[in-house]
Design a protein that fits this description.
Radius of gyration: 26 Å
Largest sheet: 10 strands, mixed
CATH class of the largest domain: Alpha Beta
Strand order of the largest sheet: 7-6-5-4-8-1-9-11-2-12
CATH architecture of the largest domain: 3-Layer(aba) Sandwich
CATH topology of the largest domain: Alkaline Phosphatase, subunit A
Structural class: alpha/beta
Number of strands: 26
Distance between the termini: 44 Å
Number of domains: 3
Strand content: 15-25%
Helix content: 25-40%
Shape: globular
CATH superfamily of the largest domain: Alkaline Phosphatase, subunit A
């Protein structure tokens, strides 16, 4: 902004006819310098006043039906409802059945199987660092970029948000608070949690969702002071479980509310649902707080606010007209609201029924921000802006397409396993089970006419075999395509240790590779790359006293021993000198089984 203002001032005075030769020369030189610096990339083009600010809000495990505007009669969401009423929207919007895959597609505009993200833990949710993110695209267009909440695409260099285009990060690690990726001293807290601000561990005071929104508002204020447009990504970890630590006043309200009308099934957990509802209303309160700040700051009109969720609800509860919940590939597991409020450009109430998905977010935002995409970047998504603007001609010309949603446990996907493919009218489902690494043989295909059967009640697979085969053929083309994006398509990226960018690396259960299919597994190994020859001190942290116990830590071919004494939960092994290159990090203890596995291994470069 400053460069353009200087340029305009200089040119104005020149045009006005200054007669002092020296001043004329100075102003002319300054004008030329500013213009050259701007167009050579030395000055930011962020000063374009037409660029909208952008906020993307995505709660974790909050389902389609958890809002008044989508038919929920119990959970109070007046602010999200107001946002929806002031928005343009996509009525048939899809996300993945679980979180990391949705986040990878949202960030890149590409199907998650292109990005190495295949699951949510065991080293399967680390995104390839060479992927281009929406934060990088907008940053190149002059935006300040910030994330506040849940990243879940890698906790170590070069996979962290600050390595992937975000100027500011205020996050928890891994898949959530109260998971093995967090510092053990956090003790599973949602209130006053230990968080990470730009990679640095910090203590906080407040409830986690409140903290994320407050940090985002502080970031917005800094951007306003610097006169830069901003991209704020607000993926809260609430209402993801566990449910032990929720806003107390709201919990008391929902404990006494009639939850039967939104409970699905005869044996629902009403206390758990009350806790989830409390977290959802707390998200809504923060949406209201953010909106008030946008209005009082005078930036409401030219700020895009997008609201969506990352997957279906985390319990069997009301999901609108849809069937299923989180981790399923029926509509209840993969449908999301998609509200886009941009008062300056979009008309409230505009609704498009064209199918759309998480892969469309990057191209849509790049289009809205007039941001140039890198040469050669191949996207699976497309800009929804013409549809959100209500362009009838563009809507008529909009081609039908296939969207595929697939994810299940395992190191790599299995063809046809737990998948859904949708075009504008038809949907083919093979609900073979998210939690199964191997595909069962006895799960039939299901085919639905979505123009008549949004609730997926009438399976037409037997009566429309040609349509079923047509969709299977389209799926095969998609699967072959996404599976050949790279030569080692489903190999996880390696965490880099010993780098100046991250001299202390915490290796956690979130990213260790194990063969055991159940839970977090046992006897894992971390895949790392040692950036240069380095010497490390290793602190091995256990979740409980399991000593006395001998432990041996190996980084590649280099191994050193230590002893965990009785009553201790930590042992330090010092001065492990390792060469540059790829290495596996593993711990061998004298106690076999889960008790002998570490909670974390913290490597500190000491040379």
């Amino acid at each position: 902004m400053i460069q353009f203002m200087m340029c305009k001032v200089c040119l104005f005075h020149l045009k006005a006819g200054f007669r002092t030769p020296r001043l004329y020369s100075v102003l002319l030189a300054l004008s030329i310098f500013v213009l050259v610096s701007v167009f050579s990339g030395h000055a930011s083009l962020a000063s374009d006043p037409t660029q909208p600010n952008i906020i993307v809000i995505m709660p974790d495990d909050q389902g389609y039906g958890d809002h008044g505007v989508t038919g929920n009669s119990v959970i109070r969401t007046p602010n999200i409802d107001a946002l929806a009423e002031a928005s343009a929207s996509m009525s048939d919007f899809y996300v993945c059945p679980v979180c990391s895959p949705t986040r990878a597609s949202l960030m890149t505009g590409r199907y998650h199987y292109r990005t190495r993200v295949v699951d949510t833990f065991k080293g399967r949710s680390m995104m390839e660092p060479e992927e281009v993110t929406i934060a990088e695209v907008l940053k190149d267009a002059g935006y300040a970029t910030g994330i506040f909440g849940k990243w879940h695409l890698g906790d170590n260099y070069p996979l962290r948000p600050n390595d992937q285009g975000f100027d500011e990060s205020y996050i928890h690690r891994g898949g959530g608070l109260a998971q093995p990726s967090e510092p053990i001293e956090n003790q599973r807290r949602y209130t006053n949690p230990i968080l990470f601000e730009n990679g640095k561990q910090i203590a906080t005071e407040g409830y986690c969702t409140d903290l994320y929104f407050d940090a985002a508002i502080r970031f917005i204020d800094r951007c306003r002071e610097e006169q830069k447009p901003f991209f704020v990504y607000l993926p809260t970890n609430a209402p993801h479980g566990p449910y032990h630590d929720v806003p107390a006043e709201l919990y008391e309200y929902y404990k006494n509310a009639d939850l039967k009308s939104i409970m699905v099934g005869q044996r629902g957990n009403f206390d758990q649902l009350a806790r989830i509802a409390a977290m959802i209303e707390n998200v809504d309160q923060n949406v209201g707080k953010l909106d008030q700040h946008l209005k009082s700051s005078g930036i409401f009109e030219n700020t895009i606010v997008i609201f969506l969720v990352d997957n279906g609800p985390n319990s069997m509860r009301f999901a609108g007209p849809f069937r299923g919940m989180k981790a399923t590939v029926h509509e209840g597991g993969i449908r999301s609201p998609f509200f886009v409020r941009w008062p300056k450009r979009l008309n409230a109430g505009t609704v498009s029924d064209r199918i759309a998905a998480h892969i469309d977010l990057l191209p849509t935002l790049a289009d809205a921000a007039n941001a140039k995409l890198p040469d050669g970047l191949i996207l699976d998504g497309k800009s929804l802006l013409p549809l959100l603007e209500g362009n009838k001609e563009k809507a008529r010309q909009w081609p039908d397409r296939h969207l595929v949603l697939q994810v299940h446990r395992g190191d790599q996907p299995v063809r046809y396993h737990h998948m859904a493919i949708r075009n504008q009218r038809w949907k083919l489902v093979h609900p073979s089970g998210f939690g199964k690494e191997k595909m069962p043989d006895d799960v039939p295909y299901e085919l639905y006419d979505m123009s008549k059967d949004q609730g997926e009640k009438v399976n037409l697979a037997a009566s429309r075999p040609a349509k079923l085969q047509q969709l299977l053929d389209a799926y095969d083309v998609w699967f072959d395509d996404v599976s050949t994006t790279r030569s080692d398509n489903y190999a996880p990226p390696r965490m880099v240790i010993g780098s100046d960018k991250e001299p202390v690396s915490a290796l956690t259960l979130q990213d260790w590779r194990v063969t055991n299919a159940e839970g977090w597994g046992v006897s894992g190994v971390w895949l790392v790359h040692v950036e240069r020859p380095a010497t490390f001190d290793a602190e091995i942290v256990f979740s409980q006293p399991v000593g006395p116990m001998d432990v041996s830590l190996a980084i590649g071919d280099v191994s050193q021993k230590g002893t965990l004494e009785a009553g201790q939960t930590r042992v330090m092994i010092r001065n492990i000198a390792v060469p540059r290159g790829d290495a596996d990090v593993r711990l061998v203890s004298s106690i076999n089984g889960r008790k002998g596995d570490p909670y974390q291994v913290i490597l500190t470069r000491v040379d």
